[in-house]
Amino acid sequence: MSTYQHVLLAIDYSKENSFVAKKAQQIALLNQAKLSIVHIVEHITSDNDNLMNDLLLAEQSSLEEIADELGITGANQWLKAGIPAKEIVGLAQEQAVDLIVMGAHHHQGLSRLIGSPSSNTLQHTTCDLLAVHLN
């Protein structure tokens, strides 16, 4: 069994974040792997780029706080705007990530039909994905 070299924690600021983060941290420690963190702000089409910039600035401090708790340096922290699965998969490829860790929420209704970020990420990634059950 091969070991992981680079673990990417994808967070969504849900109340279960710390549970998912601890799983990613444990895996990284067991494999002596680099641990990185990303949060994707779903880009809402808007004529107001200032609104998106303000949102990203507000989200940055939350990301840094979680990263600091996990000992993740600024060079391994990413905050992006876009479609979560697309951004996560793209970052994983760019950064040679071999394991993505993210929470898997139970979805109903429309989100069940169009797919959750974790299921969409799984469909498009070439690396392993650990979807941590949250419900």
Count of runs of 4 or more consecutive helical residues: 5
Structural class: alpha/beta
SS elements, strand count: 5
The largest sheet is: 5 strands, parallel
What does this entry look like structurally?
It is built from five helices and five strands, in the order E-H-E-H-E-H-E-H-H-E. It is an alpha/beta fold and 135 residues long. It has one domain: Rossmann fold, CATH 3.40.50.620. The termini are far apart.
Helices and strands in order, then pairings?
Layout: E1 6-11, H1 17-31, E2 34-42, H2 49-70, E3 77-82, H3 84-94, E4 99-104, H4 110-114, H5 117-124, E5 128-133
Parallel strand pairs: 1-2, 1-4, 2-3, 4-5
Short recap of the structure:
By secondary structure, the protein is of the alpha/beta class.
Sum up the structure in keywords:
5 helices; alpha/beta; 135 residues; five-stranded parallel β-sheet; 5 strands; Rossmann fold
